[in-house]
Fold:
Amino acid sequence: MQAKKVISFCVALLCCIGCSKQDAPPPFYSSATFVLDGTHNIPKIGAPVSSTTITLASKEAPTTPPLSIPGADTETFAIAQGKDIIIGSPRSSRILARSTDSSNIIELLADSSHIYAIHLNGTIESYLIDGKLQWHSATPSFPKPGSVLFHGSLILLSDSVVTSLATGDGSQKWKYNTTLSPISACVSWKFDVLYVALSNNNPALADSIVTLKANGNIFARFGFATTRITSNLCIAGDNIAFGYLSGADTAAARRTTHLSVWNLASATPQLKWKQHLLYIPSTVSYNGKMIISGGFRETEGEIVSGIDAFHIDDSATVWRRRFTYPLVSTLTVSSSYAYIPFTFSTQATVPTKTVLSIIDLSDGKTQSEFNIPDAEAGFVQGVGMPVDGMLSYADRSQSKVYFLKP
Structure:
């Protein structure tokens, strides 16, 4: 894909949104992504050497990953178990609130004073940290994971619509209707805008990214010919990165896969670089220096699975890693490490079904592997959540949270 293929409706980014940039992101967290810029970047924790496990207050299996609560001192994380919101620490937990809604909670978000619960059927609830229900609202269709908090709004992605609800009372502030499917959203705190990836779910057509202001006005929209975006959007300084599936390679008669980085600090987004990948990139992360992509692809019974690291300022490959098992989890990164959970099938002859692989980002080598024997079904999909200086994951089938200590 060449830069000339970009269909741009942009106006000048620097002069219009550079003046409203924020020096530091506000403390808003999501159970799906932790920070809201798509980087999956957590504070430096280190490589786990021990662990502790707590059994949650409710009997159901968790339906979200753990969520770090901004500024909390004692009860430092929240998690959803069906319709229950649990709050606790690495030592204990309790039921904070029990929703009367009929469907399970699939995502939690938090600021310093509220927890927002998103249900599978589109019901949205806001709770104070003490568990008191503040408001109850609904979206017009089923929401997708990856909601964001942005300038007093809770932004939700659903089929063919992006909806903004006021965090104060749950009222609708605006909505953006589209014929495409919103698949990922992230915030650039530097440029003070929201980016949403819109997909046709067809590599023969053009996917696009729309840039929205806090009031819902379209700031820009640019499309990518014969491209299907397959990963999250990831902010990397003045750039945005994502993986994609292109139109068929005429020579090989198969669709090729790539990671691309676009510079946003100009009137029209410019292709900074792209790299061909051997797998379909499903997760992209940024640690302040490198872009790290991951995913897998199965062709004629052969699996190609791996992660690749690239310098942000050029397309030089820092290192590559390949795995024998599909990489389907979100890549959690810190300044030094990447954390990758692998869950092995019941047919695999392995002593432990779930292993956390810790990759040194300086050279791509395995720093260590940490076994979680009890997590036979793996973890709830999402980032490894930092809680009290530890990395936390929720068990996919049991009422447990694991805290991995460096």
